[in-house]
Amino acid sequence: MTLDTKPAVKRVASKPDVKKFPFFHPFSRRLHICLLCMAGFCCTTFMRMHIAISMTCMINSTALALESAVFPEAFENSSSIFEELEPVSNGACSSNADVNKKVVVDYGGQLVWNSQEQNLIFSGTFWGSIITVLPSMFFINRYSPRYVLQAAVGCYILMTAITPYIATRFGPYPVFISRVIMGLGEGFILPANNAILANWFPSAERSTAISLFTTGNQMAGAGGNPVAASLCASSFGWPSIFYFASIVSTIWSVCWFLTASNQPSKCKVMTKTERDYLDANVVRRSNKTNRSLVVPYSKILKSPAFLAQLLCQFVINFIVTLLQIYLPNYFKDVLHLGVIANGTYTSVPNIVNFALKIVWGITIDRAKEKKIISGTFGVKLSQSIANFGGALFLILITYFVDCTNPTLGFVFFCMMYGCMGTLVSGFYTSLLSLAPKYTATMSSISVFCAMMGRLATPAIVGLIKKQNTLSEWQTLFLVCAAANIICGAVFLVFGSGELQEWGLEDEAKEMKTLAEKTPLASIQNLPADTEDQDIFQSALDMEIPEIQLNEITLTTEERQRFQRRIREDSMCL
């Protein structure tokens, strides 16, 4: 006799009646986990992106300009073709009426690396991450995401700490190799964080959690750039930037090792109210699995919503990388800002982005929770503001900003970064909503596209920007604006913030197959406190096919009651 998987009477299970424990609460453990992830993301982003402003301090701009001069006699009388501004200036086109002179702003560096060598170093982490981003999903599915993330950050710390020694003694190419090794760790950062956040947060809080987590990116720019600029201008020099980043990241690594956990069931310090709330609203799945996870790759890669999200990953990461890595160079060589002003101009827009991201994420989550808007409307609205708003201000920067009005450029950049604050409530939230079961796999594919966008940035910049002139930068900004418009239009048509049918179908098929292969006796003998709930979920799915698998899990009491019912049914067989 076999169990009937298609009962005549359909019943819908309701969620356990538990009190909601607020996310923003001093004792909210999921808030602590989110803040830890945010701090770690801030550390890794700072270690990766501070090379932008550090490079402006490492390079001897005057020597580089003389080396690239057309006429050899320029080396004997550099004052005839160059006008060197003070490194603390706040923007100037020229203090001299001679328009044939090229303005040079030198921050006092000693390395003479040309633009091709600099672009190669900038691309190093992206080459490394391309190698590991796809294999990362297999590691995260089989090992603890917590320890995978720890190892990745450790790789960052080691390579960052030894960079000054390598740069001063061995030149640009060994530095490039060290950046590639750093990138090997970068391929694990986002997939590991995504897996941990998916285990800790119900769907109604994901936009807020993602917004808070990804603010680590803005914190690295808002706080890291002024610190880097100050250290660069200090007597410690640019090597101190690398040492500072390594020390801070090591402190975070120790805190993560001592306090983090992969999921609520592994957490030892948590209030009972919050534990009950998470038990009732978050699907808990062990990341370490002894059986192969059947991933519907063909359905994932044919999904219009997922493909639209991949396009957004590529375009947004191309634009963000351009702003993070090359914007300090634009402020220095085009707007002619000094080192302190450069740090300020690159940090304040990140603060605007940080504030808008948090406010917008909370607003969207509350609107979805109150059923004012759907998940799809929320992600499309957020993505449209980011793409079309960003394109508008890039066009304004192109046609109205030059070295005569750097303040206007600063205002436009702040507004553009503010529009981009809605991004995580757009394509990023869409990624985690399409099929939560396959979060690690989809994240790895998505991050691969993101890395391709980052890797394309140095190539495209090198293709357009030859002499670092204003017209070349205007072309770059117009390319970014066009990419934003195309990306926003595609997501507006095909994007989605809802659980996809293929995700539900494959979940049901896997549960049915597992039920057919699992003897009834093995279900009876399972202990009540087992962590693997797949068998109970499969049996529950047979009895109650309309259950929302991505929203609830069985509590201990329900599992025990379910076991008793199975035993009673088996006695009747």
Automatic annotation (TrEMBL):
Subcellular locations according to the entry: Membrane
A Gene Ontology cellular-component term: membrane
Pfam families reported in the protein's UniProt record: MFS_1
Keywords noted in UniProt: Membrane, Transmembrane, Transmembrane helix
Regions that span the bilayer: 33-53, 120-140, 147-167, 241-260, 306-327, 347-364, 385-401, 407-428, 440-464, 476-494
Bilayer disposition of the protein: Multi-pass membrane protein
Keyword Membrane attributed: yes
Main location: membrane
Entry protein name: Major facilitator superfamily (MFS) profile domain-containing protein
Record lineage: Eukaryota, Metazoa, Ecdysozoa, Nematoda, Chromadorea
Encoding gene (name): slc-17.4
